[in-house]
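Quick one, probably user error.
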């Protein structure tokens, strides 16, 4: 980490793992939660070894990774990275998440609620806004605002889900279909 973290630090790379990267962007708004993912970085500076954790199948799973990041022939990271080239927290977490799933390719396509659960141990809830009537969406908004005012941390992401559309197909207002977004 350099000069703290920011949701805008997360830059997607060559795979369609926006669902987990969106989750990382959301949790970056809560640095205390993000730092809890790093169990040990004691040997990070000297040896490039990190231990991080994810909440998988109802329990915390610990993953050890090194800081050797896959790069292209020009030395640029192939997968996700931080906006600041001197920060590596996004690359370390993505690498560890890929390791727990088998490889980077296994991260292509997923759902934000699963990503949020895996990084926060929270109970995810998916809401299809197309099914809500206006009064229900107003009530949902009031409930969320009351939770925030009550000191609860509400982690939210969204997507324009479409079975007919390609991944990251253009939609209205400059948004993409089948792409994950962070709500901050």
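Nope, works fine. Designed sequence:
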């Amino acid at each position: 980490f350099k000069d703290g973290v920011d949701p805008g630090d997360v830059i997607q790379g060559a795979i369609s793992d926006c669902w987990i990267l969106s989750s990382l962007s959301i949790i970056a708004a809560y640095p205390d939660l993000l730092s809890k993912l790093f169990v040990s970085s004691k040997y990070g500076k000297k040896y490039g070894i990190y231990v991080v954790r994810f909440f998988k199948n109802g329990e915390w799973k610990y993953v050890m990774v090194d800081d050797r990041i896959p790069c292209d022939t020009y030395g640029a990271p192939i997968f996700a990275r931080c906006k600041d080239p001197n920060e590596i927290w996004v690359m370390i977490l993505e690498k560890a998440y890929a390791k727990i799933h088998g490889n980077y390719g296994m991260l292509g396509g997923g759902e934000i609620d699963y990503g949020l659960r895996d990084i926060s141990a929270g109970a995810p809830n998916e809401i299809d806004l197309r099914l809500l009537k206006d009064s229900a969406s107003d009530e949902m908004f009031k409930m969320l605002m009351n939770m925030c005012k009550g000191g609860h941390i509400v982690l939210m992401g969204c997507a324009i889900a479409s079975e007919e559309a390609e991944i990251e197909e253009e939609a209205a207002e400059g948004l993409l279909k089948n792409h994950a977004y962070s709500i901050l």
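The two ends are 20 Å apart (CA to CA).
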